[in-house]
Specification:
Elements lengths: L1 E6 L8 H13 L6 E3 L11 H7 L6 H13 L2 E10 L10 E8 L5 E6 L10 H4 L8 E5 L5 E6 L8 H9 L4 E5 L7 H15 L2 E5 L4 E2 L2 E2 L5 E3 L5 E4 L5 E6 L4 H8 L10
Parallel strand pairs: 1-2, 2-3, 7-8, 8-9
Antiparallel strand pairs: 1-14, 3-4, 4-5, 6-7, 9-12, 10-11, 12-13
The structure holds 2-oxoglutaric acid (AKG).
Keywords: Hydrolase
Protein name: Hydrolase
Organism: Terrabacter aerolatus
Length: about 270
């Protein structure tokens, strides 16, 4: 499975319109990959809390339409990172905004949405401005060499909650895709926890982080792809870059067969 991770850098000066056009261009340049992945909240700004309400949009809004067209032109499955989603109806005590990932098929069809379950901010940011998602999402992603790969979705802070990944595993996930806006000061946790999820769940982990500095927060970069044995197959640095990697999808079932630790679980 050929995968491209676009570790996008942005600051405060680029408009959402300009950034969207730049991202669509970067996605089109990844033709030939099976899956292209973008970071969390790149249109609204991961830590740009004050702009979220104004930049919120529907899952068929202008950013989604630009991503759908880019996926179709490049003929790739596109994990478009996440947007601040505005949707109706709003629950009685709800906020009507979610941190929502969008996945498009190579035909440009929106095939999956995932609303981030664990909100980051310790009372501020996401918990005060957004609602929490409740639904697990696992989808089949087609691979040019034949067949599909079962991909479980999660976002950034979710990575700190291993029980979520066990549940995705139990729904058949072989790969976890994790877009993020993870700060530089805790980037060691980002890489370590990604490797831990790969080892404990015997899954491929694809982590696409943000780079650059926006809203006074320096992002950590260090996107990575880890195979089901825990081996880091590709790793980015601190700045904007595209990681391109051909993942051997036979490794996961072979590793699960030769080291059958999952079969020894006792509490499920
Ligand atoms: O858990 C962390 O250290 C960072 C999480 C985060 O930045 C997020 O979920 O947006």
């Amino acid at each position: 499975m050929k995968v491209a991770l676009i570790q996008l850098a942005y600051g405060d000066d680029e408009s959402v319109l300009d950034r969207t056009a730049r991202v669509a261009h970067l996605v089109r340049a990844q033709a030939g990959h099976d899956l292209v992945v973008l970071p969390e909240l790149w249109p609204a700004g991961g830590f740009d809390y004050t702009a979220w309400d104004e930049r919120a949009e529907a899952v068929d809004g202008p950013v989604a339409q630009a991503l759908a067209a880019a996926a179709r032109d490049a003929r790739v499955t596109l994990h478009g990172g996440s947007i601040v989603e505005r949707a109706e109806p709003v629950e009685a005590d709800g906020r009507g905004l979610w941190n929502t990932s969008l996945v498009f098929s190579p035909d440009g069809e929106l095939v999956a949405t995932y609303r981030k379950i664990h909100r980051f901010g310790f009372g501020e940011g996401e918990p005060s401005l957004m609602d929490a998602g409740a639904d697990l999402v696992v989808l089949d992603v087609p691979v040019a060499t034949g067949g599909t790969v079962s991909v479980g979705l999660s976002t950034c802070y979710d990575l700190r909650f291993p029980e979520l990944y066990r549940r995705l595993l139990d729904r058949g996930a072989e790969v976890f895709v994790i877009p993020a806006a993870w700060p530089r000061r805790r980037v060691a946790h980002w890489t370590l926890l990604g490797q831990a999820r790969a080892v404990e769940d015997q899954c491929v982990v694809i982590q696409c982080n943000t780079a650059g500095t926006h809203a006074r927060h320096e992002m950590g970069g260090h996107s990575q792809v880890v195979d089901a044995t825990g081996k880091v197959l590709a790793a980015a640095g601190l700045d904007e870059e595209v990681l391109s990697i051909d993942i051997d999808t036979t490794v996961t079932p072979e590793w699960r067969r030769t080291f059958p630790v999952l079969a020894d679980r006792r509490l499920s």
